[in-house]
Amino acid sequence: MSRLESFIRRMTAQRDILDLVCAEVANIEGPVLELGLGNGRTFHHLRERLPGRRIVAFDRALAAHSSSIPEAENLVLGEIRETASRFIGIDAALVHADIGTGYEDCDAVTSTWLPDLTARLLRVGGIAVSGTPLDHPQLQRLPTPPSVPADRYFICRRV
Ligand code: SAM
Fold this sequence. Notes:
Elements: H1 3-25, E1 32-35, H2 41-49, E2 55-59, E3 75-77, H3 80-83, E4 92-97, H4 104-121, E5 122-130, E6 139-142, E7 154-158
Parallel strand pairs: 1-2, 1-4, 2-3, 4-5
Antiparallel strand pairs: 5-7, 6-7
Bound molecules: S-adenosylmethionine.
């Protein structure tokens, strides 16, 4: 598969998963945490799907399109491992983590801290969506939509 095809599949998977979980998150109280603002495309999508919901976005640096920049109080810059730890206990309804690199060694390091951090950020019953696996005893894996290739994207519920 070419990188273009792989990219299209990833974007389609992201959209389908976010649409699926937003229908449920609409009924769960709490903010949304966007780990990895990047260009802001998924932030923009979440903002459309969950109007009025507080969305706090995290990244090392601001590189988002001007249409997709959160309010200053909801933009947190720095290393997510450190910055998001300050939000432990916020009882998020949704954590969306799109910080995979496609490099196995880098993503393996992320997998050592992201699952535990995600579990601590979520309220019980809250949902996590991630491009890297979230193996953790408090995160129960949920099925992905049929359009999502196996092990491409992960959905979990905080138990
Ligand atoms: N979902 C975004 C979108 O739709 O535009 C794209 C996110 S992009 C793939 C990943 C972003 O996460 C990058 O902007 C990168 O700087 C950020 N990132 C990755 N790991 C990070 C970390 N450990 N701390 C802070 N930012 C990180």
